[in-house]
TrEMBL record:
The lineage of its organism: Bacteria, Bacillati, Bacillota, Bacilli, Bacillales. The keyword Signal applies. PROSITE patterns: FA58C_3 (PS50022). This is F5/8 type C domain-containing protein. The keyword Signal applies. Residues 774-916 form the F5/8 type C domain. InterPro entries: DUF4855, FA58C, FIMAH_dom, Galactose-bd-like_sf. It comes from Paenibacillus aquistagni.
Amino acid sequence: MYSNKKWVFVLMAAVLLMSPLSSIYAQPMDSDSVITQVEEIEQIEGERAAENPQAVTEQTTDANEPAADPVQQAPEPHPNTSASSMDQAQFRNLAAGLPYEWSEQPAASRPDDGSKLTDGKYASLDMNDPAWVGHVRGKTREVMFDLGEEKSIGRISAHFFQDYPANSILVPLTVSMYVSDDKVNWGLLSHNATQLLWGEGPPRQETYVWDGNRDGIKGGNTDGKLAYARYVKVTFTMHHSQWEYVDEIEIMGTDGMVEGAVKVPAEQPHFLPPGEATAGIHNLNLLYNGQYANGLGDWNKERIIPNISYVNKDGEPTDWMFDGVLYLGLASPAGRDFGLGQTNLGDWNWYLDKTFAAAGDMQQLNEATKEVGSKLNQPDHKMKVVLMIPNPGEYLNDFGDVDGDGVTESFNDSAVGKEKAFENREKAIQWWLDQVQNIWQAQQYSNLELVGMYWLEEQISTSATGPALIKSVSDKVHGKNMKFFWIPHSLAYKSYMWKDVGFDAVAFQPNYFFGDMDADRLEDAANLAKQYGMSNEIEFDDRMLTDGVFRERFIDYLNSGASTGLMHQGFKAYYQGNDAIRNLAVSKDPSLRLMYDWLYQFTKGTYVVNNSPAPEVDVFLNGHMMEGDTVVPDTETVQFTWNVKDDDGSGLVKVTAQFDGKPYTSGTPIDLTGKPGKHRLDITVTAAKSQTTTYIITAAANADTMSTHVKRFEEQKQFMTSRAPRSLNNYIALMKRYEGTDAVQFNKYLLGFRTRLDQLAEAKMITDTAYTALKEEVYNLVGNLAEGKPATASSVEGSSSRLVPEHAVDGFSSTRWASNYVDDSWFQVDLGEVKSFDTLRIDWELARANTYKLLISNDRQNWTNVIKDNDGIITAHDGKETVRFKPVQARYVKFQGIKRNTDYGYSFFEFGLYNLSGAEEVMPIDGTTVDVNESAKTLTIDGLLMDGNLAKVYLKIVDSKGKVRHNSEVRSTETGSFEFTVKLTGNLKGTCDAYLSTDGMTEPVKLTFTYDKKD
């Protein structure tokens, strides 16, 4: 198990052969390496494959071999390659035209009319070919055929499609084939692993085949080559997120029972029980003791005690909890990974020294076991110990000299040849086993018993020598009278052949805790474990302490284990991240301490399924109960609290919250400055089941809020001169004048504010903090033309509902769109009608583009670059990126990826389009008004100096005949305003012009007024 890697990596690593997922999800999680080789090479299926090499290559044609027309023709029936009681040429397709039953119906978008699998029409290399039947997510699919009566069956084939990553379609990892006499009890014919492997590439096909003449019958210990049965079942495992497409299934055979046909004994699926194979271990606790931050890889006695025994609330042991401990490490101090074949001899020695030091991890476990045994009056109790075997890998050139001959061992085939590289791997592992045995015997731990070794790589290597190496290691482990343990992840390649390569005890990982999966993943993992004769792992980590969703997932594991029989019947391994069990044990939160109690009950087989619904909760914003969505000024600081309704006091109820996708603690103040727009508060209440309620808090911006922000920033000395805030306040004053009454004039001064803000930033007269916050106000008030509009994309990462394109135009900073891992990906938004715009804003997630284009269209057929230089190619930048261009008009706007910047796809939180041009230019003197008071015979002219300068303003009045009748000047006030008061006389009767100017103005501002009162 990989505690320092992220599980989402596992979900897709198999797809991309070691490509990681977006680091926004980086958490200490389970599992990591999936398929570690990029080459698509032949597989060796243990000793059975060695005896019949043709079984390896028969599955399909070489995926790398070009073909003129690879799937237009249906696969030919497999030729009879050896003597049999009947010429296979007499076989016919018993499934032709036959109806069948699905365990779960295909997706509505890729339906099956009940005949597509048996109509003889093979689909083309096109996902849109209607012959394909599509499935996505959920449990292993089963399709069952009733032949009407018992018949002789010699060959079964199932035809699948792959188009990844362009269209998120993968072939199944495993296809299994069964027969039955009663449609209840099934005998196994074969498990078949993909031979194409997963990886990027053009569309392709794969046909999975069981051929009795070639493969024999896997189940029932029979030597038959033909199966005699009425019912046939084909199952295929589902990827957690990608699509799987199937079209034709053929069952080749003949009527009646021919010579050599046998009934296949049914085998009842079952968990691997605790016993001899598991060295007597029922519950194996994983303790990670590699190099971890904050000392989490260092285990002391006090930390271990709650991990091996059940302690009461005072921390005193009252019973044993786990009867086995697996020590394993991932990272070395040099940052190399023990599980990925990166570590060298120095790293291996470091781990041994650390683990077996005088006061090291193993001694601490011994002391903890001794202390617990003493307190439980069982001083002779011995804790069973399993220790990891590092993965030597297949590429390291300079591992180190393990035999003292002065030559460093190389594991790389290309450097020393396949035989020598294999021999060196064996030599290194033998050295490891000898070191462990010698140190153990020398230490003479009083209360520990070394019972097994654990293979750290979580799948059977896809290399040709992978199975053979594990078989060799198994022989060495057994030669030292120990058991061989393994915990494969849910996408482990050929995990079903665990017995063939020599493993004794295997716990299959569901991986439900970590991924974007439905709860039926647990049932599916249990069914697969039973089908393969394995058991299951229980998985959780420290996130369940702070996140109700993960706490519910932990409870789902316990409930599933109790319901499927795992709790009573199966050997169990427990992945806890680094420190979850101890943290639950010492927690003062009753709802978390209860989880520790339940875990203990589960290990003892006394846990009772709990599906208690979550109670309701009252949520308060700044002390006022929220009835729903809320609008507050973005000048406010907000804080949220909550009360659980009808809490029964059991300690089961737990409330957790997230604000804009990040954990939120009750009562924490949140300053909304610089955060105008929509925000999400997600309150999750968990009993056994959880309920999440989402509240939308809109932080509203307007002229008043902008004025408040400018004032605050001025008080905080975030302006370099007093002129800067004066200037901005003048624009705000004019915005306020027209707010709600004249949108054109409001927009004029809003855009003038933006221009002035940019000028201040360029002149370094404002801090980045103030500039960024005020710029967000502008964008919010201008409005994102794309927000809420229909959005589509070429793909969605993992077909996840959390990453759909509409999340990039929903106005929330915590939701996002993400593509598959393909350079040629696009995102498109329909503005509904032709709109003008000149600015693009993309709020990138870490998985950003390196280069991309922005295209526009009015018909979605003809597209034009908005950027005219460099062929329209834009170089992306981290964070919130703004791209300005000449104003354009269009209805459809497309982001077209050119090249990714990471191994991930493209992902952004928000995609914004803005129109920042077209408003009338703001004059240096603006906002002027003229007031003629005829009764008082006075003229008042006022206005604002928009640059914020304290300067002289000049007034000249010209009468209706063109004669200058008045000249005066005033100095602007501290607020940047000015005012003239002029006595009206007979000379100013009629219509007059007033001219305002300051030093440096090339053209004055002209005003007109009329004075008609007689003397």
